[in-house]
Structure formats: C-alpha cells, structure tokens
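chain below, 207 aa
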Amino acid sequence: MEETKLFLITYFAAFLGVIPPGLVNMTVAKTCVERGKKNGIYVAVGAALVVLIQALIAVLLAKYIFDHPLVRRIFLRAGLVIFIILGIYFFIKAKSKKAIRPSAKKANANSILKGMLVAVLNVFPIPYFVAIAGAMNVNHEMTYDWSVSIAFALAACLGSFTTLYLYVFSFAKIEEKVESFAKYSNYFMAGLMLILIVITLIRMYNF
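prediction:
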C-alpha cells in the first residue's frame, strides 16, 4: 500500500516537474523538428533511463544529504559550473548562422545516447527527487527498503517519460518553422541557464 501511494505521488511529481521548458524537454523538442519524431522519442527514452538512475540515487542519499550541509553545497557548486558551461554553449549555438532543415533520418542508438547525455548534464532531478523523498518521510516513519526505492525510481522514470512523450507530439507540429524554433530555443536555453545560475548562487549563499 505504501509503495502504491509513493509511486503515484512520485509519478505526478515527476510528470509536473518536466512540464516547464528545460534542458531535457527542449532537447527532445529540437530533436523532433531537426531529426524527426522517432529520434525525439529515442531521446526521451534515453533521458528517462537516466532519470531512473538519478531518482534511485536521490532516494538512497536523501537522508544523508539532508543531514550533511557540506554535501548539499557540493551539489550546488557542481550545478553552477555545469550551468555556466551550458549557458555559453547555447548562446554560441544561437549566434550560429548555420541553416537547419527538417530531416527524416532513421532513429538510432545515437539519439538514445544523446538523451542520456543531456539528462546526465541536467543535475536538477537529483535535488528535486531528494526533496520529494524527504517530504514523504518528514516523520521518519517510512523505511526506504529496496521495494520502496525501486517503486520511487520507476515512478520518476515513467512520469518524466510521459511528459517528454507529450512534448514529442506537441512540437512535431512546428516543422515549418524549424530555423526560427532552433534559433530562439537556443536563446531561451541560454537565458534559462542564466536564471539557474542566479538561483544556484542565491541558494549557495542562503543555505
């Protein structure tokens, strides 16, 4: 019963957490218009697999992270460096004059690897799922044994994939505006990285 409750809560938390435009879902969207819908789905699958691992790590380390402020600061500093690098990357991509054309390339393992790589670079899911795990165990009565931990990780994986799958079909409708979408999505991602840098700095100096 506890596993079912935890699964549903985590599933919807993961589903809602991926809805706002971010690194992973924007990559899925860009892949759809540049390389086709199937490649977009493959990227979503790769990202969801990494989320599975991230959620499992998060639930196993939740108590440890909450009890050790130093570990929390290390996570924030690592995220700051990654956001700065990605911000520069997306800004340079947005300035590029290279034309982009829709492509019907076959879906392949490279798209799965791309999704996995992008998800690995996205460090937000770990603290997000740590917070969820902690919130569901405020009174310290829940014991995160393997069945509970696996249910938590699967729910996070499936919830994230559901939202990414919806992104595939939503953004597949803008193929006639590929160049504009690619350009402004890169600007958007650069701006998003700047916002995340500011948020991370605030959190580093206030926690």
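The chain has one domain: 2-206. The radius of gyration is 18 Å.
thats it, cya
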